[in-house]
Amino acid sequence: MGSRLADxxxxxxxxxxxxTLLFATSIVLLLVGGLVRLxxxxxxxxxxxxxxxxxxxxxxxxxxxxxxxxxQPSVDIIAVLxxxxxxxxxxxxxxxxxxxxxxSGLFLEAxxxxxxxxxxxxxxxxxPRMARRRVGGTxxxxxxxxxxxxxxxxx
Length: 155
Known about the structure:
mainly alpha, two-stranded antiparallel ribbon, 5 helices, 2 strands, 8% strand
């Protein structure tokens, strides 16, 4: 039972950090491929770059299919075409570089989204819960109703 919970936690962490993992992996594959290429080992370098390209292509196809299923197609199809084209014309370095560009964009977008969520949560927590209004000669206190759907806002 405990191992099942640990597996679930690992899956959740992987989902939360998939952009970071893709970014780190694509950078490592690109750089190690470059170092291997500098040592005049063309075939291993190409294999590392092809691995990076296939990784990016798989991720792009997965996200593109998901977007189409949700009926929210995006420009990710361009990444799919570019990565598939790099493989088709035997340009593994270009494909690995496209993967790094794709991964860096996704990584930055995920970080910005997480930061914005955090900032908005702080803003909601700081919102006044009560207001005072002068009616005639008296002051009336009006409390903000707490939405039942969001008890985490601190109401």
